[in-house]
Sequence to fold (160 residues):
Amino acid sequence: MSEIFYTEFMSPFGITLASSEAGALRNLWFPGQKHAPDPQHWQLADQQPLFSQLAQQLEAYAEGKRQRFELPLAPVGTAFQQQIWQALQGIPFGEHTSYGALAQQLGRPTAARAVGAAIGRNPLSIVIPCHRVLGKTGKLTGFASGLTMKQRLLAVEQPE
Fold:
């Protein structure tokens, strides 16, 4: 296993933490986020080009100048979680889906709760756009970084 590097910086979304492994983004999270990793055995590396690219792309996204992130990704999870996270990347900017619709799309119509659990474990918040998944009635439901952050991200994608 290669070494894991991390950084902490201020983004338009507040204090932001990120980790990388073998040149690919592994985690993106915010202080207090559910299921956040513990970087105590990782190496602090603020000057990595990948982290600079991430910061620039988050800034452009927040300003409405970027709709997709173009970074090498290496999220760690089960095969099922990977399948869900891959499907999330197919939800277009500014559009939404529901947990049930996503389960249906993946050929698992009774797995909405499992889909929700996998989404809750998304290690790359914003970059893998789990904020685009809503309850079946369109209601905002759980978000590892809190519903206020989910509202903020949805607002970025729905300019007035």
Q: What stands out?
A: The chain has a mean pLDDT of 89. The helical segments are 49-62, 79-88, 99-105, 112-120, 147-157. Strands lie at 4-11, 14-21, 24-29, 43-44, 97-98, 133-134.
